[in-house]
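Deliverable D4.2, example record:
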Amino acid sequence: MSDIRHSLLRRDALSAAKEVLYHLDIYFSSQLQSAPLPLVDKGPAELLEEFLFQVPKERGAPPKRLNSLQELQLLEIMCNYFQEQTKDSVRQIIFSSLFSPQGNKADDSRMALLGKLVSMAVAVCRVPVLECAAFWLQRTPAVYCVRLARALVDDYCNLVPGSIQTLKQIFTASPRFCCQFITSVTALYDLSSDDLIPPSDLLELIVSWIFEDPRLILITFLNTPIAANLPIGFLELTPLTGLIRWCVKAPLAYKRKKKASLSNGHPPSKIAKDLTSGEDRDCHQLYSKLHLSVLQVLMMLQGHLTEKNLYGRLGLVPFDHVVPLVEEINRLSDELNPLNASKEIELALDRLAQALQVAMASGALLCTRDDLRTVCSRLPHNNLLQLVISGPVQQPTHGALPPGFYPHIHTPPLGYPTHAAHPALPAHPALPAHPVQTFIPGMTFPYRPIR
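Output generated by the structure prediction step:
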């Protein structure tokens, strides 16, 4: 590697970067013939950091910087390399060696270049780069995945108005990347503050993807070998938990945002108020569509979990994530005046109850009704949620039931006492029989048309 480094030092930055990719291709192609998962040695890693990420090898040396044109040319070189490399295994290992965080000073340059590379791949529809990025999102700690998601959102939702349509078109090109992008975006925007409410353009994009094909959010789960115990600190297998969080918290989060704008001492003008109300109304309709799609996906899961022999063993909606969600709803309900936000609180609790019921029925949520009662005990009262956490009761087999008696289907909601059976009502006296009406065939029926 020292000979290669000396030859690279005599080249300009772009040709040296291209040469590094060439040597890495040869190195990993030969490594893959002897080992399915070769390790990246120190030598190749140092070459990458010095000649692609411009991190000087000598301590105290000033960092090298490419100008904007050189950086664009470097991104084009990398895009073309991944497009032209026909072996998927070589592409994956080189992408991983380039952009897997190492916990050193090169990581900032690494993440900045990755964001620009994936953004360019979206713009010019370089599917091999998007597929590599999807696998990277699956194998990288969530804190770095969120940084990539933020970079893409900044480029396509904030920087250039209308460019969201370019991002929308990759739905058919790389569904796997779209699935991982949704998962990372829901981890980024958790609605815990007004700044972490997803932009309306991003919300519309994700809802349009999922509403067109709800199975999109199961692509990673359906195409990945899965163990019952998932690693901690990485993105989840599906964005289901994040999407449930969006749907449930949205009514309360938007109400909090509206309350904050009214209490800052500067009431909005009528035009601004009408515009904001229209945008909020559109967003609420989008969340309703998203909630329907999430419920549809949850209903599909029982068959998929059974097919993978994971039913009852793998919770795709972890109970550990339901607990903080319930706590956040409780905190938001207390923060908002229940007298002024009763509709929003009712809607949030209705959606929570529906998601919990369908997730438990499909095997996506592994917990007992007692667990739910404990977690939800402090939430405001909601009839549907009470039915869900009470659950059906198995009735003993009855003999001949008296006429008019029907066994209870559910236990009474929590907080309500059971009532004793009403005493039997006295029988009514027999009514006199009515005289039989004689039919006279010769009598005509007077017909008068309605005018």
